[in-house]
Write a structure and sequence with these properties.
This protein has five helices and 17 strands. The chain has 305 residues and is of the alpha+beta class. It folds into two domains: 116 residues, 2,3-Dihydroxybiphenyl 1,2-Dioxygenase, domain 1; 157 residues, 2,3-Dihydroxybiphenyl 1,2-Dioxygenase, domain 1 (Roll). Strands 9, 10, 11, 12, 13, 14, 15, 16 and 17 form a nine-stranded mixed sheet that branches. Strands 2-3-4-1-5-8-7-6 form an eight-stranded mixed sheet, covered by helices on one side. A hairpin with a 3-residue loop joins strand 10 and strand 11. Helix 2 runs antiparallel to helix 3.
Protein backbone atom coordinates (compact mmCIF):
# COMPACT_ATOMS: atom_id res chain seq x y z
CA UNK A 1 0.00 0.00 0.00
CA UNK A 2 1.17 3.51 -0.74
CA UNK A 3 3.08 5.43 1.92
CA UNK A 4 1.34 8.52 3.29
CA UNK A 5 3.26 11.53 4.65
CA UNK A 6 0.46 12.00 7.20
CA UNK A 7 -0.31 8.79 9.06
CA UNK A 8 -3.41 9.71 11.02
CA UNK A 9 -5.82 12.17 12.54
CA UNK A 10 -4.60 12.81 16.09
CA UNK A 11 -6.85 15.40 17.79
CA UNK A 12 -9.19 18.37 17.47
CA UNK A 13 -9.10 21.60 19.51
CA UNK A 14 -12.37 23.38 20.18
CA UNK A 15 -13.46 26.53 22.00
CA UNK A 16 -16.29 26.31 24.51
CA UNK A 17 -18.15 29.10 26.32
CA UNK A 18 -18.65 26.82 29.36
CA UNK A 19 -15.39 25.01 30.03
CA UNK A 20 -16.53 23.33 33.25
CA UNK A 21 -19.71 21.99 31.66
CA UNK A 22 -17.84 20.72 28.60
CA UNK A 23 -15.19 19.02 30.73
CA UNK A 24 -17.89 17.31 32.79
CA UNK A 25 -19.65 16.08 29.67
CA UNK A 26 -16.57 14.65 27.99
CA UNK A 27 -15.17 13.01 31.13
CA UNK A 28 -18.23 11.87 33.06
CA UNK A 29 -20.59 11.12 30.17
CA UNK A 30 -18.76 10.77 26.84
CA UNK A 31 -15.95 8.62 28.20
CA UNK A 32 -12.70 10.59 27.93
CA UNK A 33 -10.19 11.40 30.70
CA UNK A 34 -8.06 14.44 31.46
CA UNK A 35 -4.53 13.89 30.13
CA UNK A 36 -3.08 17.31 30.99
CA UNK A 37 -3.89 20.91 31.78
CA UNK A 38 -1.93 23.90 30.54
CA UNK A 39 -3.22 27.29 31.58
CA UNK A 40 -6.96 27.29 30.85
CA UNK A 41 -6.72 24.47 28.31
CA UNK A 42 -7.88 20.93 29.15
CA UNK A 43 -6.38 18.09 27.10
CA UNK A 44 -8.53 14.96 27.02
CA UNK A 45 -7.44 11.44 26.12
CA UNK A 46 -9.30 8.37 24.94
CA UNK A 47 -8.32 4.84 26.01
CA UNK A 48 -5.74 4.49 23.22
CA UNK A 49 -2.15 5.69 23.06
CA UNK A 50 -2.69 9.21 21.67
CA UNK A 51 -1.68 11.87 24.20
CA UNK A 52 -5.04 13.56 23.67
CA UNK A 53 -7.85 13.46 21.14
CA UNK A 54 -9.70 16.59 22.22
CA UNK A 55 -8.50 19.91 23.64
CA UNK A 56 -10.98 22.27 25.31
CA UNK A 57 -10.21 25.99 25.25
CA UNK A 58 -12.29 28.75 26.87
CA UNK A 59 -14.07 30.79 24.21
CA UNK A 60 -16.90 33.32 23.97
CA UNK A 61 -18.81 31.02 21.61
CA UNK A 62 -18.43 27.46 20.31
CA UNK A 63 -15.75 27.35 17.60
CA UNK A 64 -13.16 25.04 16.10
CA UNK A 65 -9.57 26.13 16.72
CA UNK A 66 -7.44 23.49 15.02
CA UNK A 67 -7.09 19.93 13.75
CA UNK A 68 -3.92 17.97 14.52
CA UNK A 69 -2.47 15.28 12.25
CA UNK A 70 0.43 12.93 12.98
CA UNK A 71 3.25 12.95 10.42
CA UNK A 72 5.38 9.95 9.50
CA UNK A 73 8.72 9.91 11.31
CA UNK A 74 10.60 9.90 8.01
CA UNK A 75 8.80 12.91 6.58
CA UNK A 76 10.48 16.32 6.39
CA UNK A 77 8.19 18.80 8.14
CA UNK A 78 9.77 21.75 6.34
CA UNK A 79 9.12 20.11 2.96
CA UNK A 80 5.52 19.40 3.95
CA UNK A 81 5.09 23.03 4.99
CA UNK A 82 6.58 24.31 1.74
CA UNK A 83 4.30 22.07 -0.33
CA UNK A 84 1.24 23.26 1.59
CA UNK A 85 2.19 26.89 0.97
CA UNK A 86 2.60 26.25 -2.76
CA UNK A 87 -0.98 25.00 -2.79
CA UNK A 88 -2.44 28.01 -1.02
CA UNK A 89 -1.81 27.54 2.69
CA UNK A 90 -0.25 30.12 5.01
CA UNK A 91 2.57 29.01 7.29
CA UNK A 92 1.67 30.08 10.84
CA UNK A 93 4.55 28.37 12.64
CA UNK A 94 7.56 26.60 11.08
CA UNK A 95 8.71 23.24 12.49
CA UNK A 96 9.86 23.65 16.10
CA UNK A 97 9.69 22.02 19.51
CA UNK A 98 6.06 21.69 20.50
CA UNK A 99 5.20 23.89 23.52
CA UNK A 100 1.99 21.96 24.22
CA UNK A 101 1.86 18.84 26.45
CA UNK A 102 1.78 16.40 23.51
CA UNK A 103 5.44 17.22 22.86
CA UNK A 104 7.57 16.30 19.86
CA UNK A 105 7.91 18.65 16.90
CA UNK A 106 5.04 20.70 15.50
CA UNK A 107 4.36 22.75 12.35
CA UNK A 108 1.20 24.84 11.90
CA UNK A 109 -0.57 26.12 8.79
CA UNK A 110 -3.79 27.86 7.87
CA UNK A 111 -5.30 25.98 4.96
CA UNK A 112 -6.94 27.92 2.09
CA UNK A 113 -10.46 27.84 3.56
CA UNK A 114 -9.41 29.10 6.98
CA UNK A 115 -8.84 25.98 9.07
CA UNK A 116 -5.75 25.75 11.28
CA UNK A 117 -3.89 22.46 10.94
CA UNK A 118 -1.17 21.27 13.33
CA UNK A 119 1.25 18.58 12.19
CA UNK A 120 3.05 16.72 14.98
CA UNK A 121 5.99 14.38 14.72
CA UNK A 122 7.36 12.31 17.61
CA UNK A 123 4.48 13.35 19.86
CA UNK A 124 4.17 11.82 23.32
CA UNK A 125 2.03 8.68 23.56
CA UNK A 126 0.56 6.79 26.50
CA UNK A 127 2.03 3.42 27.43
CA UNK A 128 -1.20 2.18 29.04
CA UNK A 129 -3.34 2.04 25.89
CA UNK A 130 -6.23 -0.36 26.26
CA UNK A 131 -9.55 -1.20 24.66
CA UNK A 132 -12.60 -0.56 26.82
CA UNK A 133 -15.99 -1.87 25.83
CA UNK A 134 -17.97 1.37 25.54
CA UNK A 135 -15.27 4.06 25.69
CA UNK A 136 -13.62 5.89 22.76
CA UNK A 137 -10.31 4.40 21.63
CA UNK A 138 -9.22 7.28 19.36
CA UNK A 139 -10.64 9.71 16.84
CA UNK A 140 -12.13 8.06 13.76
CA UNK A 141 -12.58 11.15 11.59
CA UNK A 142 -13.34 14.82 11.54
CA UNK A 143 -16.07 16.12 9.23
CA UNK A 144 -15.36 19.67 8.07
CA UNK A 145 -17.76 21.98 6.27
CA UNK A 146 -16.53 23.54 3.04
CA UNK A 147 -17.93 26.18 0.73
CA UNK A 148 -15.95 24.57 -2.12
CA UNK A 149 -15.51 20.83 -1.61
CA UNK A 150 -13.76 20.31 -4.95
CA UNK A 151 -11.07 22.90 -4.20
CA UNK A 152 -10.59 21.65 -0.64
CA UNK A 153 -10.36 18.06 -1.82
CA UNK A 154 -7.64 19.07 -4.27
CA UNK A 155 -5.70 20.75 -1.44
CA UNK A 156 -5.77 17.59 0.68
CA UNK A 157 -4.62 15.49 -2.26
CA UNK A 158 -1.98 17.78 -3.73
CA UNK A 159 -0.58 19.42 -0.60
CA UNK A 160 -1.06 16.80 2.11
CA UNK A 161 -0.99 13.50 0.23
CA UNK A 162 -4.49 12.28 1.13
CA UNK A 163 -6.38 9.96 -1.22
CA UNK A 164 -10.03 10.32 -2.19
CA UNK A 165 -11.93 7.14 -1.35
CA UNK A 166 -15.54 8.11 -2.16
CA UNK A 167 -17.61 11.09 -3.29
CA UNK A 168 -21.31 11.35 -2.48
CA UNK A 169 -23.58 14.15 -3.62
CA UNK A 170 -22.46 16.55 -0.88
CA UNK A 171 -19.43 14.90 0.72
CA UNK A 172 -15.86 13.89 -0.12
CA UNK A 173 -14.18 11.12 1.89
CA UNK A 174 -10.38 11.22 2.21
CA UNK A 175 -7.91 8.83 3.79
CA UNK A 176 -4.30 8.89 4.98
CA UNK A 177 -4.03 5.25 6.12
CA UNK A 178 -6.11 2.08 5.80
CA UNK A 179 -9.20 3.61 7.41
CA UNK A 180 -11.74 4.45 4.69
CA UNK A 181 -11.59 8.10 5.77
CA UNK A 182 -9.89 10.33 8.32
CA UNK A 183 -11.39 13.54 6.92
CA UNK A 184 -14.82 14.12 5.42
CA UNK A 185 -15.59 17.37 3.58
CA UNK A 186 -19.25 18.41 3.52
CA UNK A 187 -20.75 21.06 1.25
CA UNK A 188 -21.94 24.05 3.28
CA UNK A 189 -22.30 27.82 3.04
CA UNK A 190 -19.65 28.46 5.71
CA UNK A 191 -16.34 26.74 6.37
CA UNK A 192 -16.02 25.10 9.78
CA UNK A 193 -16.82 22.00 11.79
CA UNK A 194 -19.61 19.56 10.96
CA UNK A 195 -18.84 16.94 13.61
CA UNK A 196 -16.12 14.94 15.37
CA UNK A 197 -16.27 11.13 15.31
CA UNK A 198 -14.81 8.96 18.09
CA UNK A 199 -13.93 5.33 17.37
CA UNK A 200 -15.30 2.63 19.68
CA UNK A 201 -14.22 -1.03 19.65
CA UNK A 202 -17.35 -2.48 17.98
CA UNK A 203 -21.05 -1.94 17.25
CA UNK A 204 -22.01 -3.32 20.67
CA UNK A 205 -19.91 -0.57 22.24
CA UNK A 206 -21.71 2.04 20.14
CA UNK A 207 -25.04 0.75 21.43
CA UNK A 208 -23.93 0.65 25.06
CA UNK A 209 -22.26 4.07 24.91
CA UNK A 210 -25.38 5.49 23.28
CA UNK A 211 -27.43 4.07 26.12
CA UNK A 212 -25.15 5.81 28.60
CA UNK A 213 -25.74 9.13 26.84
CA UNK A 214 -29.50 8.62 26.79
CA UNK A 215 -29.47 7.75 30.51
CA UNK A 216 -27.61 11.02 31.13
CA UNK A 217 -30.27 13.04 29.32
CA UNK A 218 -28.68 13.34 25.87
CA UNK A 219 -30.99 11.82 23.23
CA UNK A 220 -29.61 10.29 20.06
CA UNK A 221 -29.53 13.10 17.49
CA UNK A 222 -29.23 10.75 14.52
CA UNK A 223 -28.94 6.98 14.40
CA UNK A 224 -28.21 4.33 15.36
CA UNK A 225 -27.40 3.26 11.81
CA UNK A 226 -24.73 2.10 9.37
CA UNK A 227 -23.26 4.64 6.94
CA UNK A 228 -22.82 4.19 3.19
CA UNK A 229 -19.25 5.38 2.44
CA UNK A 230 -17.05 3.78 5.09
CA UNK A 231 -19.72 1.25 6.13
CA UNK A 232 -19.31 2.33 9.77
CA UNK A 233 -21.91 2.11 12.52
CA UNK A 234 -22.90 5.54 13.86
CA UNK A 235 -24.79 7.39 16.57
CA UNK A 236 -24.75 11.20 16.69
CA UNK A 237 -25.27 13.49 19.69
CA UNK A 238 -25.21 17.22 20.35
CA UNK A 239 -23.00 18.17 23.30
CA UNK A 240 -24.01 20.74 25.97
CA UNK A 241 -22.70 23.78 24.06
CA UNK A 242 -23.71 22.75 20.55
CA UNK A 243 -20.95 20.58 19.06
CA UNK A 244 -22.09 17.52 17.12
CA UNK A 245 -20.16 14.40 18.13
CA UNK A 246 -20.40 10.83 16.90
CA UNK A 247 -19.77 7.38 18.29
CA UNK A 248 -18.67 5.07 15.48
CA UNK A 249 -17.17 1.62 14.93
CA UNK A 250 -16.26 -0.92 12.26
CA UNK A 251 -14.85 1.62 9.78
CA UNK A 252 -14.16 -0.06 6.45
CA UNK A 253 -10.49 -0.90 5.91
CA UNK A 254 -9.23 -0.28 2.37
CA UNK A 255 -6.07 -0.50 0.30
CA UNK A 256 -4.87 0.78 -3.06
CA UNK A 257 -7.25 -1.56 -4.90
CA UNK A 258 -10.35 0.17 -3.51
CA UNK A 259 -12.58 1.56 -6.27
CA UNK A 260 -13.75 5.13 -5.74
CA UNK A 261 -17.52 5.43 -6.02
CA UNK A 262 -19.29 8.62 -7.06
CA UNK A 263 -22.61 10.35 -6.31
CA UNK A 264 -24.46 8.24 -8.85
CA UNK A 265 -23.70 5.12 -6.80
CA UNK A 266 -24.28 6.49 -3.29
CA UNK A 267 -28.07 6.78 -3.52
CA UNK A 268 -30.54 5.63 -0.86
CA UNK A 269 -34.09 4.39 -1.53
CA UNK A 270 -36.79 6.95 -0.64
CA UNK A 271 -37.04 7.49 3.11
CA UNK A 272 -33.79 5.69 3.98
CA UNK A 273 -30.67 7.37 5.37
CA UNK A 274 -28.47 4.36 6.18
CA UNK A 275 -27.81 0.74 5.21
CA UNK A 276 -30.01 -0.74 7.91
CA UNK A 277 -32.98 1.53 7.27
CA UNK A 278 -33.69 2.17 10.95
CA UNK A 279 -32.09 5.62 11.40
CA UNK A 280 -34.82 8.27 11.15
CA UNK A 281 -34.29 11.34 8.95
CA UNK A 282 -31.99 13.86 10.57
CA UNK A 283 -33.91 16.51 12.51
CA UNK A 284 -33.64 20.18 11.55
CA UNK A 285 -31.99 21.16 14.85
CA UNK A 286 -29.24 18.60 14.24
CA UNK A 287 -28.65 19.87 10.71
CA UNK A 288 -28.44 23.42 12.12
CA UNK A 289 -25.88 22.32 14.73
CA UNK A 290 -23.76 20.72 12.02
CA UNK A 291 -23.37 24.05 10.22
CA UNK A 292 -23.16 26.42 13.22
CA UNK A 293 -19.50 25.95 14.23
CA UNK A 294 -17.04 28.06 12.24
CA UNK A 295 -13.26 28.41 12.37
CA UNK A 296 -11.71 30.86 14.80
CA UNK A 297 -9.76 33.37 12.66
CA UNK A 298 -6.07 32.46 12.83
CA UNK A 299 -3.52 34.93 14.16
CA UNK A 300 -1.26 35.47 11.14
CA UNK A 301 2.48 36.07 11.33
CA UNK A 302 3.75 39.56 10.31
CA UNK A 303 3.48 40.13 6.57
CA UNK A 304 1.15 37.17 5.98
CA UNK A 305 -2.28 37.55 4.40
Amino acid sequence: MMQFPITGLRSVSIGTPDLARSEHFYTQIWGLAVAARQGDVVYMRASGSDHHVLALHPSESPEILSVTFRVDAGENLEALAAKAVVHGATLLAPPADNPEPDGGMVMVIREPQGGVFRFVQGDWQHADAREERDRPLRLAHVNLNSADVAAETAFYQQALGFVLTDRSKIMAFLRCNSDHHAVVLAEAKANGLNHIAFLLPDWESVMRASGRLVDAGYPIAWGVGRHGPGDNVFAYFVDPVGFVVEFTAEVLQVDDSYRVRGPEEWIWPPGRTDHWGIAPPKADHVKAAQTAIVYRPAALPPGAS
